[in-house]
Please model this.
Amino acid sequence: MVKEAKIALEDGTVLKGEAFGYETTNVGEVVFSTGMTGYTESLTDPSFKGEILMSTYPLEGNYGVDEDWYQSDKIQTEGFIVRELCRKPSCFGADKSLDEFLKEFEIPGISGIDTRALTLKIREFGSMKGALTTENIADDELLKLARAQPNIQDIDLVPKVSTKEIKKYGEDMDLNVALIDCGVKKNIIQGFLDKGMGVTLFPYDTPSDKIMDYDPNGLMVSCGPGNPERNLKTIDTIQKLSNKLPIFGICMGQQVIAKSFGAKIFKMKFGHRGANQPVKDLVTGNVFITSQNHGFSVDADSLKDTPLNLTQVNLNDGTPEGFSHDELVLRCVQYHPEAGPGPNDTRFIYDEFKEMMDTY
Ligand SMILES: NC(=O)CC[C@H](N)C(=O)O
Model:
């Protein structure tokens, strides 16, 4: 027999569905992703820490879960909301079902939710604090839990996902990248290795001279969960290194680099999450379809008072998707060129990073 599950939202909504995954109760900010595939990659993406993920695509789990697709070593989201769960997957490579996957990492799931209506509500209200339970909890208790949690802007999530020790990937490479791990995905590291660059992974709070001891050819700042403005240690390191090394950023990387040059950050109403976000390059006029997962953004107007130049914009809402620097060797993007999940339209950015380090 299938158990009942419930999701409560801070606006007073309580929705009932069927439980899957682990029997527990978790709180987080409820966000939606428009990706049609890639639930394994999204659920294991550290940038989802503190968030309860909802998929707008109506069927999840149909091709199972394979460990090769993980973007970190576990599920990072606080819960998963789906319209329909496939309990019997079919795929040549899969080693478990989505239900087994959530059980293994002790994460609750709810299916049978009208995800179209809930997405419309979030688009109107904005991302909402929620509580998801697969246990027996009264509606008003669950609502209290949803409302009592702190706002995602006010919590430190990066220390929860960043590496605790320095790690090296790739031996005997000509170029080596120092990667500050704010919540890196495996595909970001793999993207460098595939192009023949080695990677040294550093904790988010590593001081600048420690990084320079490794004599890197470039500095990469990764994606990561939560509010970039709270990531003061990484911002300090960037300020000390940006005139010493070529510097790159992806997602939170872009946000903290912008902040380190005095730009402002704001919380978006419902963010960009999915594998189909259109981005225009202002230099070439080319448009790319990109993979994204962020709820904060750099304020485009605030770039005017900085040495940063806007190079790319989002075609849905005009938010900044990339920039360069007047003098320094610097390239940032708000989207995920490494994909996982999503399209590979912007993989060439790794070649640009390489060229920038080669010529530096
Ligand atoms: N993927 C990311 O790096 C996300 C950055 C930041 N946590 C945001 O939501 O905007």
The domain at 158-359 is CATH 3.40.50.880 (Rossmann fold). The CA atoms of residues 229 and 256 lie 7 Å apart. The chain is about 25% helix and 30% strand. The pocket of glutamine is lined by residues 47, 223-226, 228, 251-252, 293-296 (CB under 6 Å).
